[in-house]
Model the fold of this input.
Amino acid sequence: MSVSSSRGDQWTFLTNHARVLLQIARDPDTRLRDIATGIGITERAVQLIVADLEAAGYLTRTRVGRRNRYTIDPTVALRHPAEADHPVGDLLGAFLHREDPASSSGSASCRSASRRTSSCRQPARSPWN
Done:
C-alpha cells in the first residue's frame, strides 16, 4: 500500500514542542526568534510552546538583563501515558549526546539519576539548561 505524496511527505516523528525543547537544551540563552527560524515556525508559535512547556514544569524562565535564560528540568515525565514512565531527560539525551560527546558523561549521570531525584538540575552550560 503506497502513501500519497501529498500526505506522505508532511509528517515527522518529533512535535514542535520537542523541537523547541531541544533547541533550548542546546542553547539556554537562545532567543525565541532564533528558535522559530531554526525550526521553521512562527515566533508566536514558539512563544505559545514555551508557555506550554513552562506551565507543564519542563522549563523555567529567568530574566537575565534584557534576555531570558531557560532551565530544563530533566526529571519531568513525558506527557503521553505510553511514555509517562520516562523522564524528558531521556528524550533530550537521545538527541543531545550525539551532538556533544564531551558533555555526555555529565548528562549520562543526570539521566540515570533523573528517575530517583529531582536534584538533577545541571549547572550553567550543560545540555539540560
Notes: Helices lie at 5-8, 16-26, 32-39, 43-55, 88-96, 104-113. The chain has six helices and two strands.
